[in-house]
Write a structure and sequence with these properties.
CATH topology of the largest domain: tt1808, chain A
Number of strands: 23
Distance between the termini: 39 Å
Strand order of the largest sheet: 1-4-5-6-7-8
Largest sheet: 6 strands, mixed
Helix content: 25-40%
Number of domains: 4
Strand content: 15-25%
Amino acid sequence: MIEKWNYFVYDLCEAKKKDVDEDTFHALIETQLQHLGWAKFKGEICHKQNIHLGNSNRIEPDILIKRDGEDEFVIEVKRPSHKQIKKDVDQLLSYMRILKLNVGIYIGEYIEVFYDMPSSKEAVSVMKVPLEINNKLGAKFVEQFDKENFNQESIVGFCEERLQEIQRQNSLNEIKESLIADAQIQIAESLRPYLMEKYSGSFAEEEIKGMLAMMRFTASAEGNQHESKVVVPKIQPKPKSNLIKCFLSRNANARGMFNPQNQSLTVLKGSTVNPVHVPKFSDSDRKKRDSQLAKYTEVKDGQRIVKEDVCFDTPSGAALFCVGGSANGWKEWKDADERELNVYRVKSDTPKKEGSFDANRVTNPSEFHLDFWTKYKAKLEATGRIPTLQTPQPHNWYNVRIGCSNIMLNMLCNTQKNFVGVRLYIRNSVVDKYYPILEAKKDEINNALGCKPVWDCNPSAKDKTIGLNHKTDLTNPGKVEETLEWMVEQTIIFYNVFSKEVKGIK
């Protein structure tokens, strides 16, 4: 995908160097979109289309991308020397909401992808890509917006994954800033016993304390030098931090930082954890913890020591890692006043919805998806039941053609929520022709499939699906192998049933 990104962005980079005007840049972007498979002559790249809203109002988005007459995503264009302002994003969001699109793109001094997250007042930025050759984020951008790969469900899944990555990084940054802010206290406390031992014969303890009080120490992130300097005595306000220091003592001597905003907990470097597992520990949890111990700890003086900060989505996940067995982290972890973290827990009046994010999930989704679909294709090819299969890509989906344009089998592998799915996917352009006929034979089709799939799981969507999901644990290699067998079996059943049904519709 890097090469495809380079094809797409090279002329945009040259235009930025020349500081071309907006109209020239706009026309160039429309030309470059054809590198992603979208065609002007098919009416897929619409230039400032005049869209009427009622009798007197209208909108005119810069670029609107369509497929089979249906809107897919919208692009707001500014000249490459323009500095983005809030009005630009608000304009893009208004087009997205009027056209009922989940995703919009801003292209100016850089490319930025915005997601209209449900219940959000504003569009959320999920990706910002500079106009430069060989950019890895650029490769992800063209992978998602390439015509062959693009569909509404996959782009929403991509945006949700990006939000998770951003939130996780923000949590780590908060911890880093908290540690930097606490440098004055930490360094002074560390220096005092050293100075007392070295100079106790020459200076009184109060003199050494006074000297330390007159010094200000600051720390910076990696890449900057640490510095210390003497300043005029001044009372420094204690830095505010919303992170809560905590500890766990059962089977371990662990220190942590709890984030009450997203309820995550980071086990800090230097903590001591239980080197063994406790009895009555499930095989899946045992394998998971073995992997964590190998990756994040080392043995020193017979103790298992955490060698780097490790962030967990919940206190219970962190407690399991430290204790060596199942543990209620909200009770095991205590704050500095020895109160259970349960006092900081965000309680919901509604039960957890089915399909919400799992705490136990794959850490590198793209790498996992490529490996998963490669194995899936190999197993499916070995059966000899389906004539042609596409090349696996690092997406959360994989399509199997059934011999009819705009209808296909769509396989899902959701690493965030730990489930897979097999379903018939009918694009909006042919929904009116095929879906009612298939739905009229619902009972007959269900009997042929040997199951009761969910018909039209999202009634508000333009496309229609008939699908079957399977809950699993994609972090467990044994479960992954079972899941692949299930998917291959269901793919063949869905292929046999729906290829026959669809071809039979005149």
